[in-house]
Write a structure and sequence with these properties.
This protein is of the alpha+beta class and about 220 residues long. Helices cover about 40% and strands about 20% of the residues.
Length: about 220
């Protein structure tokens, strides 16, 4: 009997990751640091960055991301998002406005995809566990904790928080609990400087990364 190949769930990320790795090594690290607002340690040859409250170092020119314990820090899905930002994104200070996905350039085109992958998934993950979400977010605010999410409680919805996704890039999640009449619902808002850092397609990946990382904190 012919043995069927084992499907590697990360296999589909191999080609795009390799593409950006090849491009990344041709760039000037100082230009990346200035464009993305990141520190570049010449001695370690690595960028310092924070993702969802956790510190990482992204090596250059061979792209590899490790955490503070010098262990591989990101899955392939997250690696693609970060290396795309390093290759193409720009950091600008926010101007004080938050944008829904539909207000992001091309967001109206990809909205249904974003709604399913992010908003509905967020709603059904935490819409009936608001206390669990609050615990996770409050833990991320603790000054003496290892996870410095710096989440700010919001007055909107039944539970809402604004937090830093990546260095200087803040976003908000807002949830409304379900009841006998209506299912739970959710919203994600992005500070206006996100439009320079990521495309609308990237923001669907941002939403998924947020949900995955919050779920791991349960």
């Amino acid at each position: 009997m012919t043995k069927l190949p084992v499907y590697d769930k990360d296999q589909k990320h191999a080609a795009p990751l390799a593409h950006y790795q090849a491009r990344y090594k041709t760039l000037d690290p100082q230009e990346i640091a200035q464009r993305c607002g990141l520190l570049f340690d010449k001695t370690a040859s690595a960028f310092s960055l924070r993702l969802m409250g956790t510190e990482y170092r992204a090596a250059f020119p061979e792209f590899e991301v490790r955490d503070s314990a010098d262990k591989p820090g990101l899955n392939p899905y997250e690696q693609i998002l970060i290396i795309r930002y390093l290759c193409e994104g720009k950091y600008f200070p926010p101007q004080g406005k938050q944008l829904s996905y539909n207000e992001i350039p091309w967001g109206n085109v990809y909205y249904r995809n974003f709604e399913g992958r992010c908003l509905k998934r967020l709603a059904y993950t935490f819409g009936n566990d608001l206390e669990g979400l609050r615990r996770i977010m409050e833990e991320g605010r603790a000054a003496n904790g290892a996870w410095h999410l710096n989440a700010e409680p919001l007055p909107q919805g039944d539970a809402g928080y604004r937090f830093e996704f990546l260095n200087g890039l803040y976003m908000s999640i807002i949830l409304w609990a379900g009841d006998d009449e209506f299912p739970p619902s959710a919203q994600m808002l992005f500070d206006d400087n996100f439009v320079f850092a990521f495309t609308a397609e990237d923001l669907a990946a941002v939403g998924e990364v947020v949900i995955d990382r919050l779920k791991r904190r349960r």
